[in-house]
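Hello everyone,

My group is preparing for a crystallization screen and wants a predicted model to guide construct design. The compound we'll soak is flavin-adenine dinucleotide. Before spending weeks at the bench, it would help to have a computed complex in hand. I've included the protein sequence and the ligand's SMILES below. Output in structure-token form would be ideal because that's what our pipeline reads.
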Amino acid sequence: MTAAALVRFLGPGFAVTLVESAEIGTVGVGEATIPQIRLFNAGLGIDENQFIAVTQATFKLAIEFVGWTRGGRYMHAFGEVGRDNGGVAFQHSWLRGLAEGVAQPLAAYALNNAAALANRMQRGPARTAQILPEMPYAFHFDAGLYARFLRDYAEARGVTRHEGKIVEVRRDAETGDVSALHLDGERAIPGDLFIDCTGFRGLLIAEALGAGFEDWSHWLPCDRAMAVPSERAADFTPYTRATAHPAGWQWRIPLQHRTGNGIVYASDALSDDEAAAQLLANLDGAPLGDPRPLRFTAGKRSAFWQANVIAIGLSSGFLEPLESTSIHLIQSAIERVLKLLPGRRISAAQRAEYNRQTNLEVDRIRDFLILHYWANDRDEPFWRARREMPLPDGLAHKIELWRASGQIVREEADLFSEVAWLQVLAGQGIAAESHHPLADQPPAAQIAEYLDLLAKLTAREVAQMPDHAAFIRQHCAAREEIAA
Ligand SMILES: Cc1cc2nc3c(=O)[nH]c(=O)nc-3n(C[C@H](O)[C@H](O)[C@H](O)COP(=O)(O)OP(=O)(O)OC[C@H]3O[C@@H](n4cnc5c(N)ncnc54)[C@H](O)[C@@H]3O)c2cc1C
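Reply:
Good plan to model first. Here are the tokens for the complex, ready for your pipeline.
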């Protein structure tokens, strides 16, 4: 992604070199995205239907959370929920409606949620476009195929690619900057700015430059995963599923040619054998191999940009894939690199600004993930401990504000909108005790009618949408060839 975007947006005055090692390989997971990925692809001029076809992708409208509370299941759907009423945010009318017994669950007022539940998909404006929004969507895709596609794209536009292992990172004795990468076979690659995309080990940022790691396992204690593909599902649900289990959760990501599955767990609460058994017992098709183990620690680098090295991807830190945010963090890091691109001299202020913005972004995502764990009402020791953990201050305040007043405030750099927080706060069963007084002004019958109308329009819109699998067959069925 980084090489493709740099060659696309930097002019002819820049030379971009990519080093990859087939022997080391990639982490090989990461299949669910959020809608911003469409901006990235569009920025690169990639045709959406071609992208879907070559990456075996399906559409994603939402994430379904199952078993996180005793209440069962809810969705965090992309896009709007309801409609503001005379300047008052929708959740206040909804909260009043709940208190008066005339409101349905949030799902009834969210087009993405209702379409996802019905396995439907459409692109473009809603039929009732004056009232209902267009559905934002993301993709589930085969990350390996996407990387191949982007590699071809990058090479076709002038990126020089070296296949080989970096065996030494050379540094300038005076400045401490990285001066060159030495590959096996005596090759040396000099450079002015180095982007470290070497995965968890952070070969440049951590091993060469010694950037530290802020460990967040006291909030997000899952430290292992096992991934296994299974036979393709008959119908591709247009949503990711995240199902809680006794010591973590399991993902299900439907692609055109297979379903991606994985279990995320805390190694001090579940053994690897138990995790593998739990994963295999909860597939909805035959497994296509053995579960593949992965280890990680939740947290972030103490600096994302240090000297002349910027860490992007897993080398910059790790947040578990509960809200499919890692590929997005790569995308937004690339955007930030382009905005703050240094000339031959890098200033400390540029680095500090890059690190400031990145810290804000990852800290907000971290809080959103912690909310899912903290607000559970499951019985197992792992989950009881999550309920008792002290929260980051910003998150504690957000929950308190919601409880007291039904208000949600989107903070600076928060990737997730007010309605994203609303769906998870409400979905995880945190009740708001009050709502905005202006929502009490309309007569009761008017609020009931308003909520009823929104739900009916949403259901009617969904009813005329095509089936998700049929939509893919018609517009973007998988193809074998990889064309740049
Ligand atoms: C369990 C799990 C599930 C995930 N699910 C999602 C998801 O659903 N959605 C999402 O957005 N993200 C997800 N992610 C994150 C996502 O997989 C990564 O962000 C993404 O794959 C990018 O990885 P990367 O390129 O940083 O690292 P890697 O894939 O590890 O790539 C590292 C690269 O560096 C090269 N390299 C390393 N060392 C050397 C060396 N010495 N010499 C030469 N080359 C070297 C390797 O060859 C490789 O090309 C998930 C991650 C995990 C662990």
